Amino acid sequence: MENDSTFWKDEPTGDKITKKKREPIKLPEGFTIKNLEKENFNEVIQFIKNNYKDKIDSSLSLEYSDEFIKWYLVNHCKKEYCLVLFYLNELVGFISGSEVNLCVNKEIRLFLGVNFLCLHLNFRNKKLAPLLISQLTFIANENNIFHAIFTGGKSFPFSFVKVNYFHRPINPKKLIESKYLFYYDEPELKSELKLSIPTKEDISQILKLYHQNNKNMKIYEYLSLEKAEKIFLPVNNSVITYVLKKDGKVEEYISYFLISTFLNYSNQSIKAAYLHSWYSNNIRLLLNESFLLLKEENVDVVNCLGFGKNLRFVKNDDFLEGTGMLNYYFYNFKTENIEIKEISYVMY
């Protein structure tokens, strides 16, 4: 989001809620908004890579692969929620939305998850981001969606929860050389479980475990089988899931998505696996086995959010608490106070 936060003062955030539909926006002369189409798909991917640098803090920023952006846009976003901003036929901005069935306090509501809001460097601080947000809101309202959720490293007064990142080094030698950390006493791990990559036939069992693990959370995404297949089936440079089976039945699983982290201070990129979700009777054993497999995938560090059931293990010695915070925001929705132990929703 642009530095000018005055936009949010008049928006339905925090305790301000509205039932009024948003009107279509009027663009400044020379600007047009189009939907994401096949003919501009690759151009949009490169635009996001070059201009969407969601900062974890002042020293770190995220780097998305072509495969990840394609996986996200194709599998999670309808065309009408992918808005491409042009100025005189030059691509200068983008925003996307995905429909999310969010379970909030045991009630399932349809939200729009907002992601990849970005502008070309030469078009920032010109109040164009609010126009993209307003137009996306209008389209969502036309589809009877009146609530949204988004996250970001930048802090606004209306975040409903702030969550710490925790890090588990997988390749400490590289992390020390790149000044990501100064010292790490890596524990010695040995393989004790036989994990495998899930097939499409395994997803219904993973889904059952996912819902079982989240049933007492106050905020989590309620997944359909179709959505679960898109989230848990492995995709190169995007998603990786491991399952533990017994007699052909999935008994445990752990899932990550892959996004590199760019270190601004050392001008280096490290490959990170972000923990998405898991189910286990012995999470330490499952984590350790997954770390061994991730090392074979050349992952340098595992990142996870310190919330929900992750709090069972992130305070252990082999995880390091980071300095970055992730802020969660509702748009046109309010709820009772949510504690970090009660949330289990990861946005990509």
TrEMBL record:
<keyword id="KW-0808">Transferase</keyword>
<feature type="domain" description="Glycylpeptide N-tetradecanoyltransferase N-terminal">
    <location>
        <begin position="17"/>
        <end position="160"/>
    </location>
</feature>
<dbReference type="Pfam" id="PF02799">
    <property type="entry name" value="NMT_C"/>
</dbReference>
<dbReference type="Pfam" id="PF01233">
    <property type="entry name" value="NMT"/>
</dbReference>
<dbReference type="InterPro" id="IPR022676">
    <property type="entry name" value="NMT_N"/>
</dbReference>
<dbReference type="InterPro" id="IPR016181">
    <property type="entry name" value="Acyl_CoA_acyltransferase"/>
</dbReference>
<keyword id="KW-0012">Acyltransferase</keyword>
<dbReference type="InterPro" id="IPR022677">
    <property type="entry name" value="NMT_C"/>
</dbReference>
<protein>
    <recommendedName>
        <fullName>Glycylpeptide N-tetradecanoyltransferase</fullName>
        <ecNumber>2.3.1.97</ecNumber>
    </recommendedName>
</protein>
<comment type="function">
    <text>Adds a myristoyl group to the N-terminal glycine residue of certain cellular proteins.</text>
</comment>
<dbReference type="GO" id="GO:0004379">
    <property type="term" value="F:glycylpeptide N-tetradecanoyltransferase activity"/>
</dbReference>
<dbReference type="InterPro" id="IPR000903">
    <property type="entry name" value="NMT"/>
</dbReference>
<dbReference type="GO" id="GO:0005737">
    <property type="term" value="C:cytoplasm"/>
</dbReference>
<feature type="domain" description="Glycylpeptide N-tetradecanoyltransferase C-terminal">
    <location>
        <begin position="195"/>
        <end position="339"/>
    </location>
</feature>
<comment type="similarity">
    <text>Belongs to the NMT family.</text>
</comment>
